[in-house]
Specification:
Largest sheet of chain B: none
CATH class of chain B: Mainly Alpha
Order of helices and strands of chain A: EHHEEEEEEH
Oligomer: heterodimer
Radius of gyration of chain B: 24 Å
Distance between the termini of chain A: 17 Å
Bound molecules: protoporphyrin IX containing FE, copper (II) ion
Number of helices of chain B: 17
Strand content of chain A: 25-35%
Largest sheet of chain A: 4 strands, antiparallel
Largest interface: A-B, 77 and 68 residues
Number of strands of chain A: 7
Strand order of the largest sheet of chain A: 1-2-3-4
């Protein structure tokens, strides 16, 4: 029996969608810029280009961030955590019996909490890109599946 | 890397574990809530600085003749009052509200670009230090009006490049804010949160961000050309060199008219969330509200000429701008109708956000009507450059944009601080504001119709009475705003604990209210079990 949890950041744009969005906004604002260039006010075009560069860079950064995903596979004896980034995948394994799930509450109101899986001095963060609520619920579920240190609760049908 | 999830999960031991304290917490803030708070506090400070200038202006105008200041200084005050209020108070307030609410409303953990967010905020204090610094250099601050028309604006003293640079910085900040909002909404929505399910505040900001992105390069270009005309002997707007100063007005208003809508659309969004909550009914015609905002945004690109009727233009152009401007009344009417229909037969309650929203509805409409009057070309020939215009734009900006912001602050403040604020003080603040805003600006319609020009420190004696009334209204309105600050400070310090839903007996929509109880969308899934 095993349990698998896929974690992915919100990424509501597909690559094609992002391109269409960026292209349409470029065109839309280019119409105005060109209108002014035709009247001889070319500096507008310079600022248009700078702005589109900034928008494009921002969109690219956001799209790249969406490629950062994590998969947790929990079996009777093992927890494996696969973290995928644009650079490739990275796998961490823990003995389920000794691993511990820890949710550090935010350092202050409105701060960010952190969810980690810890064992033998190794600490790995999971779900850093989730909202607070999702992270809290994930923590609840993981605690249930992983148990405390020196615990291996039976992996039955999910009740959370 | 607080919000940008370090690509290597093992390297997480950055500043997270030792939370930054004191000033560092704010300097390096990347959390959307911290940044939202900074924007809002900054905006409040600017509101008081711009307000202090307004108090000086009204004090000078209390009587005819020159009492307190030289005309040059008076003109510096009107010019900078506008710049501070528009770019320092209204815009940052809306960006602050967007920072706080858009991620919550679309189910995102933060804004899309947290560090750019930090940067776009921190530009502002520098921009405004520079702008306010212009008062202290030889020749004083800009005095040719916030519209910076050449050749007058080119006569600004040593402060001219400072002014242009400050405006550039404000523009960059607005642009980065808009980019952040638009990317957050487009790419960070939670699974299941389709565009049409988004709350109206997020919608209004999405459209506003489009407007900002379309017009900011035009503003940046126009002020840069002023700068090169001044220092590098270009002649974009210099008639002696073959340029055309009227073209500056076209460029400026091509930016300027969408800009005034940038300052009202997010308020529309806020009002569209508050009225249903306190009417205990869903928003009437929610989808048509989105289409109305989109049509207003579209129309705002083709009406700029209504600011220039008196410059002289072909009759066909006059008709075009007149008709297109009047067309805006249609989607605006749809909105006002829908808001009214939302309240119709609702079970209304009158908490401070609702009071401000209702006042918005009435008083913004007055501003809309005077706008329609100004759109009539022959009428505008008379009203142009008079106090009637001043009355118009203050009705749309103060009980419009600013009341919208205040309604939003009163609506969400308990959510932000975790405390309820003093209802009695807030309601007092509302009533004083709502009454004195009319004492302040309504008489300016009469003054304008009687021919009192705008942007002057002295006036003919027949205008005295209404100016006195207006000034008294101004002082009272200004003073009442201190209550706003008191309510906010008290609420930050403590108070009765607010529940998750905050407004008992109401049914606010939007993800932000369901927190911290489980949110309906989530971005993790458990794949089916494999045996
Ligand atoms: C029904 C909607 C509106 C119509 C028909 C309208 C029409 C006009 C017209 C024709 C003028 C030019 C008056 C002149 O200079 O002779 C004007 C000025 C102005 N309007 Fe509006 N307007 C509307 C809504 C708004 C809104 C929503 C805002 C801002 C939130 C706004 C802000 C301004 C400002 C700031 C000016 C004066 C600019 C200046 O000369 O310094 N208006 N409006
Ligand atoms: Cu306009």
């Amino acid at each position: 029996m095993e349990q698998r949890i896929e974690l992915a950041p919100n990424c509501s744009l597909t690559t094609a969608g992002a391109m269409i969005f960026f292209g349409s906004i470029c065109l839309f604002s280019l119409v105005f810029a060109v209108f002014f260039v035709l009247q001889g006010f070319w500096p507008v075009l310079v600022f248009w280009a700078l702005e589109m560069l900034a928008l494009g860079a921002a969109l690219l950064a956001s799209m790249r961030r969406g490629k950062y995903t994590q998969t947790l596979l929990i079996t009777d004896s093992q927890i494996s955590l696969v973290t995928r980034t644009r650079q490739g995948a990275q796998k961490q394994e823990f003995a389920r019996h000794w691993a511990k799930v820890r949710l550090r509450s935010p350092p202050r109101r409105h701060g960010t909490s952190r969810l980690t899986i810890e064992s033998h001095g190794r600490v790995y963060e999971v779900g850093s890109f989730l909202t607070e609520e999702d992270r809290t619920r994930l923590a609840r579920r993981l605690r249930y599946l992983v148990g405390g240190m020196n615990e291996s609760p039976p992996l039955e049908i999910d009740r959370t | 890397m607080a919000q940008s999830h370090a690509s290597d999960a093992a390297h997480h031991d950055d500043h997270h574990d030792q939370p930054a304290t004191g000033i560092k917490r704010w300097l390096f803030a990347t959390n959307h809530k911290d940044i939202g708070t900074m924007y809002l506090v900054f905006s409040l400070i600017m509101f008081f600085i711009g307000g202090a200038m307004a108090m000086l202006i009204r004090a000078e105008l209390f009587q005819p003749g020159l009492q307190l200041m030289q005309p040059e200084f008076f003109n510096q005050l009107t010019t900078n009052h506008a710049l501070v209020m528009i770019f320092g108070a209204v815009m940052p307030a809306f960006v602050g509200l967007a920072n706080w609410m858009v991620p919550l409303q679309v189910g995102a953990p933060d804004m899309a670009l947290p560090r750019m967010n930090n940067f776009s905020f921190w530009i502002l204090p520098f921009a405004f230090t520079l702008l306010l610094g212009t008062f202290f250099v030889p020749g004083g601050a800009a005095a040719g009006g916030w519209t910076l028309y050449p050749p007058l604006s080119l006569q600004t003293g040593d402060s001219f490049p400072m002014l242009i640079f400050a405006i550039h910085m404000m523009g960059i900040s607005s642009i980065m804010g808009a980019i952040n909002v638009i990317v957050t909404i487009m790419n960070m929505r939670a699974p299941g949160m389709t565009l049409l399910k988004m709350p109206l505040f997020a919608w209004s900001w999405l459209i506003t961000a489009y407007l900002l992105i379309a017009v900011m390069p035009v503003l940046a270009g126009s002020v840069t050309m002023l700068l090169t005309d001044h220092f590098f002997k270009t002649s974009f707007f210099n008639a002696a060199g073959g340029g055309d100063p009227i073209m500056f007005e076209h460029i400026f208003w091509f930016f300027g008219h969408p800009e005034v809508y940038i300052m009202i659309l997010p308020a529309f969004g806020i009002i569209s969330e508050i009225l249903p909550t306190f009417s205990r009914k869903p928003l009437f015609g929610a989808t048509s509200m989105i289409y109305a905002i989109a049509s207003i945004a579209f129309l705002s690109f083709i009406v700029w000429g209504h600011h220039m009727f008196a410059d002289g233009m072909p009759v066909a152009a006059q008709l075009f701008y007149m008709m297109s401007t009047m067309l805006i009344a249609v989607p605006t009417g749809v909105k006002v109708f829908n808001w009214t229909a939302t309240m119709w037969r609702g079970s209304l309650s009158f908490e401070p956000p609702m009071l401000f929203a209702i006042a918005f509805l009435f008083l913004f409409s007055i501003g809309g009507f005077s706008g329609l009057m100004l759109a009539i070309v022959p009428a505008d020939f008379q009203y142009n450059q008079t106090y009637f215009v001043v009355a118009h734009f203050h009705y749309v900006l103060v009980p419009g944009a600013i009341f919208g912001i205040m309604a939003g602050v009163y609506y969400w403040l308990p959510k932000w601080t975790g405390h309820m604020y003093s209802m009695a003080l807030a309601k007092t603040h509302f009533w004083l504001s709502a009454i004195f805003i009319n004492v302040l600006f309504f008489p300016q319609h009469f003054l304008g119709l009687a021919g009192m020009p705008r942007r002057i420190p002295d006036y003919a004696v027949q205008f005295t009475d209404w100016n006195m009334v207006s000034s008294i209204g101004g002082f009272a309105f200004g003073l009442s705003q201190v209550l706003f600050a008191i309510v906010i400070v008290q609420c930050i310090r403590g108070g009765k604990k607010a529940s998750a839903k905050v407004w008992e007996g109401t049914n606010p929509t939007g993800l932000e209210w369901t927190l911290p109880s489980p949110a309906p969308y989530h971005s993790f899934s458990t794949a089916p079990e494999i045996h």
